Amino acid sequence: MAGRCPAVTQLAPREMTMNRRDWLARVLPAGGMSILAGALPAWAQTSPTWPTQPLRMIVPGGAGSGTDLMARLFADPLSKALGQPVIVDNRPGANGLIGNDLAAKAAPDGTTILFSNASAVSVNAALRRTLPYDTLKDLTPVIQVSAGGVLLVAAAGVPVRDFGGFLDYVRANPDIAYGTWGVGSTGHLTMETIAHDSRLRMRHIPYKTMGQLLTDLQGGVVKLAFVDARSPVALIQSGRLVPVAMSGTHRAPQLPNVKTLKEQGFSFDLDGWYGFFMPPRTPPDIVSRLNREIARIMQAPALQSAFAQQGLLWSAPNSPEQFSQVIRNDIRAWKEVVAKAGITPE
Fold first, then answer.
1. Which residues pair with 246 in a beta bridge?
2. CATH number, residue 114
3. Reduced to 3 states, what is the DSSP secondary structure of residue 29?
4. pTM metric for this prediction
5. Strand duo 272-278 + 112-117: pairing
6. Is there a single domain that holds both residue 141 and residue 173?
7. What are phi and psi of 239, to 5 degrees?
8. Domain range for 194
9. β-strand pairing of 176-180 with 86-90
């Protein structure tokens, strides 16, 4: 004999047209709605009032590095625009992998921002066989804010004043060491391309921070290096470092007399960049809001003046989708550089 079916509550037609929240309020026991809401992760309960907490801006570079200096230009105006403190959190090391990985694994609740660069994002993806995160899935692009090359410099006592002099000096001193801010940095890959194409023998010394590299350049521990185009300007102006050449498509605004590699006969015009990211699965409305606020800040005369004073190359604001495509194109281009230079992916 078939068992009896449990009684089924019949809903009136009016009740069947209720919205889901009202219906849940009727059928769940007292307190059930709050229990259900509590089961949802905080990031899924998006509020139009975002942000309601201080924001952490992870910077995968040490204090005083080019990435750090750029990030701090945005921290204060972004804090004012969002109505919450924006706290810079420097996480240098491993060519930006430490900071990037921290952001990639952060909760997608809108409280974490990553300010990173082409070396840390695109070049790492092109050079390394494995990463602790998936570049295209675990870093959510928000907006690109700048583009430009990196700077080849020599210690003050080295008889090098231009790229031709650099080639002569390295050929006369085989196996000479050069420094960059990390394995897989744009500086590292640019120098390896130069060494490959010009048949030079050089040794790479990777540094954890730009500050350490600049200190050793001044002390003569290393005599040649690729550095960012911002942090060594005062040392160049005081004569403690000698600028040799810029990579990329443009001269550095703060060093207008320093020619690009291409202008000096070596064709290498890949630009680096800086940009903002958020953790994966961050609600799209939060990403869009952050994009809009940063785009407004970029258009402000105060920020453009700061860019000019610090010699930074300003980029026209782009959308998250456009920035994502920049990164995809960048990874493809740097993979070609790695293959051409015969660099073995790590």
1. 151, 260
2. 3.40.190.150
3. coil
4. 0.76
5. antiparallel
6. no
7. 85, 10
8. 151-264
9. unpaired
